[in-house]
Amino acid sequence: QVQLVESGGGLVQAGGSLRLSCVASGSIFSSNAMGWYRQAPGKQRELVAAISSGGKTNYADSVQGRFTISRDNALNSVYLQMNSLKPEDTAVYYCTIVVWYLGSYRPAHNTWGRGTQVTVSS
């Protein structure tokens, strides 16, 4: 089964930036869409950004214009550049394979890594 390792989280002040990385095993990037999810304490896990195998991107309204998802198939990696961070962005961030179904991206296998903690101070 695919293994995903997230990194790049940390503590940053509001207005700052972080770049998250996700490295996957199994040669999945040439054929699979990938997504970044986040989950804050007491909140439901939500999709932040997704990128198709062809490079088409989708973003949650809350991060549009601030976050950029990208991928490097040669490195089996997906990235999330986060700029102009806000305290509301504080969450554990996860990457996973996603599929387009009934008008939205959804986790393909309910397979989650450990995630990486992002904390934005005010």
Quick take:
This protein is mostly beta strands and 122 residues long. The protein has no helices and 11 strands.
| Proportion of residues in helical segments | under 10%
Main sheet specs: 7 strands, mixed
Query: Which residue ranges are poorly predicted, with pLDDT under 50 across at least 5 consecutive positions?
Result: none
The portion of residues forming beta strands comes to over 45%
DSSP strand count: 11
Report the end-to-end length measured between terminal Cα atoms: 39 Å
Order of helices and strands: EEEEEEEEEEE
Q: Rg, please?
A: 13 Å
Describe this structure in words.
The chain has 122 residues and is an all-beta fold. Helix content is 0%, strand content 52%. The protein is built from no helices and 11 strands. The strands form 2 sheets. Strands 2, 4, 5, 6, 9, 10 and 11 form a 7-stranded mixed β-sheet that branches. Strand 5 and strand 6 (57-59) form a beta hairpin. The protein is globular. The N and C termini lie far apart (39 Å). The model has no long low-confidence stretch (mean pLDDT 93).
Question: What is the topological layout?
Answer:
Layout: E1 4-7, E2 10-13, E3 18-24, E4 33-39, E5 46-51, E6 57-59, E7 67-72, E8 77-82, E9 91-101, E10 104-107, E11 116-121
Parallel strand pairs: 2-11
Antiparallel strand pairs: 1-3, 3-8, 4-5, 4-9, 5-6, 7-8, 9-10, 9-11
